[in-house]
Amino acid sequence: MDAVKFLLPEDRIPKAWYNIAPRLPKPLWPVLHPGTLQPIGPADLEPLFPMALIAQEVSTDPWVEIPEPVRDVYRQWRPAPLYRARRLEMALDTPARIYYKYEGVSPAGSHKPTTAVPQAFYNKEAGVKRLCTETGAGQWGSSLAMASRFFGLECKVFMVRVSYDQKPYRRALMETFGATVSASPSPETASGRAILAASPDSNGSLGIAISEAVEIAAGDPHTKYALGSVLNHVLLHQTVIGLECFEQMEMAGDEPDVLVGCTGGGSNFAGIAFPYLGRALEGGPKPRVVAVEPAACPSLTKGRFAYDFGDTSHLTPLVKMHTLGSTYVPPGLHAGGLRYHGMAPLVSHILDLGLIEARAVQQLDAFAAGVRFAQAEGIVPAPEANHAVAGAIDEALRCKEEGVSRAILFNLCGHGHFDMQSYINYAAGKLRNYDYPSEEVAAALAGLPPVAA
Ligand SMILES: *Cc1c(COP(=O)(O)O)cnc(C)c1O
Hints:
By secondary structure, the protein is of the alpha/beta class. Helix content is 41%, strand content 16%. The protein has helices at 42-45, 51-57, 68-74, 86-92, 113-125, 139-150, 161-166, 168-176, 190-198, 206-218, 232-238, 240-251, 267-281, 299-302, 345-352, 363-377, 383-402, 420-427, 438-445, and strands spanning 5-6, 16-18, 63-65, 82-84, 97-102, 130-135, 154-160, 180-184, 223-225, 258-262, 288-294, 304-309, 318-323, 357-361, 407-412. Strands 1-4-5-15-10-11-14 form a 7-stranded mixed β-sheet, with helices on both faces. The protein has a 4-stranded parallel β-sheet with strand order 8-7-6-9, sandwiched between helices.
């Protein structure tokens, strides 16, 4: 039997991040000021981010050098392993060759430290004292808490209320790294107080928690804001995933015909896909690239490509993205994560250009795929990652139907060790499928800001 694991030595950690922006056939849509609706400049973002990250946000350099202190931290778990899913292939009785990149080997258990570390580094370089952020299930919060501690920054996290109550282990992890965690909506901000006044029992949402974190950062010169997905610089940092895959697929003597990733804000998907998409734009092999999202929060497949706010209280600039409307909150019964109302502008733009495909899967199908994967490969995927697993299994079964062997590469973006309650609920038959109703999409989209484009 061929090798199943492809490991690169430490010195193969990429030396630069891969910037897809200058390689696209059409430039990205500009970011607009929420008041004037005019394009913003770098100075408008300065209260929130250090200049080095703002420069990356608008960079047109094809490569951005990774600072040595960041590569030093990456060394703890990067390059991440690539596996061939031999036992899964046998279980599916498919002629497909299935590969997965495993990002769950990071200390926080997902791809998120790969951007948390450079974000903490550049803030420290800029003399910032504290980082403030939001977190849903706690993956991002724990990643930023760890990175902040490594670089001697304080870290404050607004955690979506329902997760704060239901996921005490991730909260404990953040606190172990030294972060301060508040349930959102909180009484600490005007945004939080406004929500609490209207609905004292609010479960919170990512959009609300973002408003709180942005408000704190904007009001304190020593505090900056950090976001774990969506923004161009976050997607940029994640491209080490795909760059490592280039070399590992070469070790495997194979080349992906299909790439699959799950999409919440789009960062792990971009991480694996952008280097391949860029190479295809430059005349290289052209794999199909499939983004998989939950049917309960279907921004790419049911959202509108329009200018919208990134948060609920409308403090952020306007970006053009696939959105379900900034007031959208997925139903409480949705256990699969990926709950953000919008999508990264870069991923949205690339879908609009027809360079990728998107599909939505129901949560029962996602968990069934995750259990099948765990039983074959021994890794319990994060609920988010189950969407990518479901997408990859579908592609493999299609190979079987068509009697062809294709190479499928997907991003296993994290493990599910902190999310076992959702597996317990799945096994107990407590999860339900949910299709986001078209009327509700229309209602939420009716509140989009009035921008012509
Ligand atoms: C945060 C997270 C996601 C969703 O974010 P993206 O930016 O879409 O990658 C997906 N999977 C895991 C494991 C996460 O922690």
